[in-house]
Write a structure and sequence with these properties.
The chain has about 725 residues and is an alpha+beta fold. The chain has three domains: about 110 residues, Sandwich (Jelly Rolls); about 120 residues, Sandwich (Jelly Rolls), CATH 2.60.120.10; about 325 residues, Transferase(Phosphotransferase) domain 1 (Transferase(Phosphotransferase), domain 1, Orthogonal Bundle). It is built from 20 helices and 29 strands. It has a five-stranded antiparallel sheet with strand order 20-21-22-24-23. A hairpin with a 2-residue loop joins strand 5 and strand 6. The N and C termini lie far apart (about 70 Å).
């Protein structure tokens, strides 16, 4: 108010600013019937101005005093809130000798509901709506930082299935803490956004809110209340995910179908056709555009997906082009460019109203797939992909440990809790009659697993770990179950988590980081060799054994992808580490593990992840902007930055490790120059960090956790029959 009054005074006195034009009109019109302004007493004007100035100063002083009072009250409220939160926390947390506060910084994985491939997706009915409303919803979605990444067809399909909901004034559209399953677009009326009892924002027509809920089931982080009678348009998570999956699969099947019609590729198997389909780019050419020019070097292959093109040629000594024919949707041209660099023998010109092509550049094709002639002459069978190094990885199923054959759940006693997760905890245990050896017992609450629809993930963890025999992966010895829990008896790695070491050291030096990453590379090579994608790589899931070698644990998000080339669609991972294709629900495969590996390299050396934010959606939006928008710390040299950038390419097909050279390309990267990979695999090198472990029951390298007082209810649906 004070600012506005001063602005008005300044304009009134000087005639400047935004009011100058209106003042001139007023003065000119007034001059005809009022004495000239020059006759006004200067002294009287000065007195008025002085009085107004004093009034303004008094008002400013009063406002400043009120601002200080509000600020003091705000601090007092914040102090009280913090005291209450600490009081509540202290009832449930036992302080760790290392720092209980840091435990809050551990990153938790998130996952959408599991769905089986046998399920037939139900069609979602289209909801009729006026053109004006469709436009409002479409504009809202396209303005949203996250949803603007969807293509036009996906947006249109989403708009079609959204349905209306009406709320009366004062009603809550969203309540903080409730599980979310819908996104909303405001149509009519206004809304308040409420956090901690305070209005922190407002929402009006044409705005999106609640978008996190379409990715996975998570509690709402704020409440949204109608100020007046309102209407919203609703998108359910299951509808969004079905649209994203079916549209991507439809597009993929169409591309593979096009490729099968190309003679050069007809002998390639499904895996390679799938890879090529992933490399194809969409390009539009307006009418009259020369897609191919005669006598220029060719390096690109084209499949006509929409429109028509004409083929012309200029004969030697002539100026006029001779037309040889017209190509239509589904036809292709320029395929020789995939075999060799050669001059084009004709022109290809887009016809009315333009042509859309799927294109394939020779260079990325060769990097990602290989030489086409070699592929054609090589025989490909459907046996599993073997790991690139065979000395320490042997593919088995259901490894048997005879010493534990007759051991029952009641034969164990708990020593300490060494980890806590979303569905349970991990205890260090030993046999009551033999304390010379310890194990890690992972116990998961069955009812919570069912409530969150995570049965498939838990079952995947069991079956995958049973088949793993890599020295860089924690062993699963046996499983148990009772009415409330399923149990996994695992290898105890008493050196603690890499996360704990990173917390205490702030960051790793190149030598330690290189060793950790090398161990992870060995684990990923093994998993990818048996067609398993891990999907939750982070320091929290890396443990040190007695010697200091790193092992990958917690396979709750791991999945076997068969047949090869297949993708999976469930949102899985930890927000800071998920790849763009997971965020956008495009379907993903083992390429996501290479993205996460790049994030891990950055995290180990910088102490923080490259993508962060106050809310998960902030993190996802940062991820979609790409690694190019990230600032690297000074301790990361150009060579290290190069590795991170190669691993974190937004296009999965461009990531190092995922291309023709496979994971061996990562081992050959200059960041690993001089590293003894053979010594690592044979475990005859000394790790840079050797943990101090007193005895088989020593849990001192782990944080201290409180006992779990929550006793879950019985669960007897039978999903755990094979445990």
């Amino acid at each position: 108010m004070c600012h506005a009054l001063l602005l008005f005074m300044g304009n009134a006195i000087t005639g400047g600013g935004g009011y100058a034009g209106s003042r001139k009109t007023t003065v000119e019109s007034a001059r005809s019937g009022v004495p000239d302004l020059k006759m006004t007493s200067t002294a009287a004007t000065s007195a008025v101005v002085s009085e107004l100035t004093r009034d303004v100063e008094r008002l400013k002083a009063a406002m400043d005093e009120k601002d200080r009072t509000i600020e003091q009250l705000g601090r007092a409220v914040e102090d009280i809130r913090n005291m209450l939160e600490n009081a509540v926390s202290n009832q449930f947390l036992v302080p760790s000798p290392q720092s209980s506060q840091h435990r809050l910084d551990k990153k938790k994985g998130v996952s959408g509901e599991c769905s089986t491939s046998s399920e037939t997706p139900k069609p979602f009915p289209k909801q009729s709506k006026p053109i004006k409303t469709k436009h409002l919803i479409k504009q809202a979605l396209c303005k949203n930082q996250f949803l603007k990444n969807l293509n036009t067809n996906q947006i249109s399909e989403i708009v079609d299935v959204m349905y209306p909901k009406d709320f009366e004034a004062g009603a809550y559209v969203i309540r903080k803490g409730d599980p979310g399953c819908c996104l909303y677009v405001a149509d009519e009326g206004k809304f308040d956004v409420i956090q901690s009892g305070r209005v922190v924002d407002s929402i009006g027509p044409g705005e999106v809110f609640g978008e996190m809920a379409i990715l996975y089931n998570c509690p709402r982080t704020a409440s949204v209340r109608a100020i007046e009678d309102v209407r919203v348009w609703t998108l359910e998570r299951v509808a969004y995910q079905q649209i994203m999956k079916t549209s991507a699969m439809r597009r993929f099947d169409e591309r593979v179908g096009f490729l099968k019609s190309v003679p050069l590729m007809k002998d390639l198997n499904e895996e390679f056709l799938s890879k090529i389909a992933d490399v194809l780019k969409e390009e539009f050419y307006p009418e009259g555009h020369y897609i191919i020019k005669q006598d220029t070097l060719g390096d690109k292959f084209y499949i006509l997906s929409e429109g028509r093109v004409k083929v012309t040629k200029t004969n030697k000594g002539e100026d006029e082009e001779e037309e040889f024919g017209v190509l239509e949707q589904g036809e292709f041209f320029g395929e020789v460019a995939l075999l060799k660099k050669d001059k084009r023998t004709a022109n290809v010109v887009a016809m009315h109203p333009g042509a859309e092509c799927l294109t394939l550049d020779r260079e990325p094709f060769v990097h990602f797939i290989g030489n086409l002639e070699e592929l054609k002459n090589k025989k490909y069978t459907e046996h599993p992909r073997k790991p690139s190094v065979q000395s320490t990885v042997e593919i088995k199923t259901n490894t048997f440990y005879p010493e534990l054959f007759r051991v029952e759940l009641t034969d164990f006693e708990t020593v300490a809790t060494i980890g806590v997760g979303g569905f349970g905890r991990v205890d260090l245990v030993c046999l009551k009659l033999d304390k010379s050896r310890s194990y890690a017992m992972k116990k998961l609450k069955k009812q919570q697993i069912v409530d969150m629809q995570q049965q498939e993930h838990v079952y995947n963890e069991k079956t995958i770990l049973e088949s793993c025999t890599s020295p860089f992966i924690g062993k699963l010895y046996k499983t148990y179950k009772d009415n409330r829990y399923v149990y996994m008896l695992m290898e105890a790695c008493l050196g603690g988590e890499v996360w704990t070491l990173l917390r205490d050291r702030k960051c790793f030096d190149d030598n330690a980081a290189c060793f950790v990453i090398a161990c992870v590379v060995e684990a990923l090579d093994y998993l990818h060799g048996i067609d398993v994608v891990y999907r939750d790589l982070k320091p929290e899931n890396l443990l040190l054994d007695r010697q200091g070698f790193v092992k990958l644990v917690d396979f709750g998000f791991a999945k076997r992808l068969q047949p090869r080339g297949k993708k999976t669609w469930t949102f899985c991972g930890t927000p800071e580490y998920v790849a763009p294709e997971v965020v956008l629900n495009k379907g993903h495969d083992r390429a996501v593990d290479f993205w996460a590996l790049g994030i891990l390299v950055y995290k180990l050396l910088a102490g923080i992840p490259p993508f962060s934010g106050n809310e998960p959606m902030d993190i996802y939006n940062a991820i979609l902007k790409g690694i190019g928008a990230v600032n690297f710390p000074r301790q990361m040299n150009k060579m290290t930055q190069g590795l991170v950038k190669q691993l974190c390419r937004s296009d999965p097909t461009e990531r190092i490790g995922y291309q023709k050279g496979g994971i061996q390309d990562i081992r050959r990267h200059e960041w690993f120059k001089g590293f003894d990979w053979t010594g690592l695999r044979n475990k005859n090198i000394i790790p840079p960090i050797v943990p101090h472990i007193n005895n088989p029951l020593d849990s001192s390298n782990f944080d201290i956790y409180p006992e779990d007082g929550d006793v879950p209810p019985d669960e007897s649906s039978g999903w755990d029959s094979e445990f």
